[in-house]
Amino acid sequence: MVPKLIIITCKQPPTSIPSFNISSIKTKEKPQTTQTQTLKTTTTKTKTSPPPPPPPHHHTNKKTETSLPGLLFNTFDDIINNFIDPPIKPALDPRHVLSQNFAPVLTELPPTQCQIIQGTLPPSLNGAYIRNGPNPQFLPRGPYHLFDGDGMLHAIKISNGEATLCSRYVKTYKYKTENEAGYPLFPNVFSGFNSLIASAARGSITAARVFTGQYNPSNGIGLANTSLALFGNRLFALGESDLPYEINLTPNGDIQTIGRYDFNGKLSMSMTAHPKIDADTGEAFAFRYGPIPPFLTYFRFDSNGVKHNDVPVFSMTTPSFLHDFAITKKYAVFADIQLGMNPLDMISGGSPVGSDPSKIPRIGILPRYANDEKKMKWFNVPGFNIVHAINAWDEEDGKTVTLIAPNILSVEHTMERLDLVHAMIEKVKINVETGIVSRQPLSARNLDFAVINSDFMGKRNRFVYAAIGNPMPKISGVVKIDVLKGEEVGCRMFGEGCYGGEPFFVAREGGVEEDDGYLVSYMHDEKKGESRFLVMDAKSPEFDIVAEVKLPRRVPYGFHGLFVRESDIRKLSL
Q1: Is-cis flag, bond preceding 473, omega within 30?
Q2: Quick one: how far is CA 570 from the chain centroid?
Q3: Annotation-wise, does 323 bind a ligand?
Q4: 96 has binding-site annotation
Q5: Is 308 within any annotated ligand binding site?
Q6: How far is CA 226 from the centre of its chain?
Q7: pLDDT at 51
Q8: Which of 217, 235, 259, 498 has the most CB atoms in a 10 Å sphere around its CB?
């Protein structure tokens, strides 16, 4: 339990696997698109239409013929990766980043039956839990960051107490073009530009590939490896460097990428991987950020998925790393934190995203139906750096906004030393009239990847479910926090050598109370080399296991997930 400490800032006027040791893998430039457990890669002839997925453990050969320009550019790539910008830092060394269960599975998995080893799967879970995460189709030849890697969706489809697992890449333009070529064509954002010389060298080769027709960046450069969202009767795989990619689930649990979606031409640039969906209205709210003005652009979608006009926010005066935000019934809430685009760090060999200790973090509050930024208000909140937001709501007095979010106490380590990051969940209240800000810590644990009952998005909620970093990015358990009491009221540790992912709350059908439902998550036993799907009772203090499913193969650690009910899956096919 944490004391209910209240910190008041000065009054201020508002302003307008062990068996997968990456060090033993010889890097080849050959992706696999079918299921197998071997890490050996081969080359094959590209076909215009891929064959249907082979049965498990079948090995498909595919030969690729590299053009003369491609061979030349690959040679230059090797020179850069080995001599100009080798992966010296642990945060960019694939032998470190892709160790243990962070190692990719280099093949897809068609829908495969799972074994239920404990309990039963409740009827409320009829549907699919899908989790996104980076899974590079090529073993890296040079620097590699945890945030890089092609998106792979791992979906467990549940029907009448039985489950099947399917793992498929999100077939982005980048993935498909590189898959056909047999090697990487476009550098990744977080690992490809870590010095001025490396940026210039890789930029030159990329420009040459574009000029010779190997790659067309207007068709997308993103990875769609971060999260998923369901709105407007469409399911999207998301990554903030590109447009959303529409996804479909077949009745047997297979995953299909329909394609890049621009909302009838109204979305021409990237979008956040964390849109917020109002369960009462069906509306979705989103934004994008970037390195050139406007550094922040806000927009929304109606319940049918029709996009409204952009609202550029020029009062954000520096390019901030704005990964997430929150909504209330009246406002959109943004955080201008100390992480941002930092070209000066790149010159000295640092990441393109770095911290600025001299910057004072701010919270920006904009009316959620605003057509411009005239009513945007910014409030200084020293020492408050958030990457993820959990929820926000309007207080009954009509002038106070409450925000719940994990505050990163060591923000300078966010990009390169996640193991040193400590995030503490706080409740922050902002009086939009007086500018007074109060803060209350809700837990002293290292917590992130937190969720709520999605029916309470933008409204006052009581319970938060968060992943325990031990250290990040490994997750050793999950806790339940009572926001009203300001204390933990539930906890489950996964056990020695077992690590999970972001929990996701699924409400029990017919449930009345906010916490009447289940927490679901993938979990991996590093000692046994086995992955499982856990269903936990969200109301019980120890998150009692309702069902445990042994998965037919390893599921690597990843990022964010989503549960889609069977009724919503049927709407996707329409």
Answers
A1: yes
A2: 25
A3: yes
A4: no
A5: no
A6: 3
A7: 38
A8: 235
Question: Comparing 32-41, 205-214, 448-457, which segment has the lowest mean pLDDT?
Answer: 32-41
> Residue 296 has which token pair?
């922040």
Its pTM surpasses 0.85? yes
Length of the chain: 574
Residue with the larger pLDDT of the pair 330 and 356: 330
Q: 427, 428, 429, 422: which is closest to 448 by C-alpha?
A: 422
Q: What is the DSSP string of 255-269?
A: EEEEEE--TTTT--S
Question: Mind listing the pLDDT tens digit for each residue in 403-452?
Answer: 999 999 989 888 888 889 999 999 999 999 999 999 999 999 999 999 99
Contact 216, 210 (CB under 8 A): yes
**Rounded to an integer, what distance in angstroms lies between the CA atom of residue 429 and that of residue 379?**
11
- Is 297 strand, coil or helix? strand
Distance, C-alpha 405 to centroid of its chain: 16
Q: How far apart are the C-alpha atoms of 301 and 244, rounded to whole Å?
A: 13
Kindly report the average pLDDT of the chain as a whole number. 89
Cβ of 58: how many Cβ atoms within 10 Å?
A: 11
DSSP letters spanning 44-100: -B--SSPPPPPPTT-----B-PPPHHHHHHHHHHHHIIIIIS---SGGG-HHHHT-G
- Find out whether 388 is annotated in a ligand binding site: yes
Query: What is the Cα–Cα distance from 137 to 134, expressed in whole angstroms?
Result: 9
Residue 211 structure tokens: 């000029």
Q: Which two tokens stand for residue 193?
A: 């530009």
Whole-angstrom CA distances from 257 to 160, 246, 459 are 26, 6, 33
Pairing type for strands 504-507 and 339-341 reads unpaired
Quote helix, strand, coil % in the chain, to nearest 5: 15, 35, 50
